[in-house]
Specification:
This protein has 3 helices and 2 strands. By secondary structure, the chain is α+β, with helices and mostly antiparallel strands.
Length: about 90
Amino acid sequence: MESPAPKSGQEAKKQETTLASLKDNGPMIGIQFVTDEKGRKVAVQIDLKKYGAVLEDFWDGLISESRRKEKGIPIEKIKAVLVKPGRLHG
């Protein structure tokens, strides 16, 4: 998976503001919980315009954690595989 592009100063500031608002105990605008017939929370709807960057970071963390125990591939092997069909110039 490709790493996300670095965030600009403005994007980083917006994300910090969003994270700060997530830490507040007030109402969470743009977050709605879906409940079952007993009132238990079973899903969440998230406004991606407001929280998309935070959700992307959360998702990246989940993916990273799920791959934590995977064995890595040496860069030399990857280069060899890409050079052979001409996708990378050696």
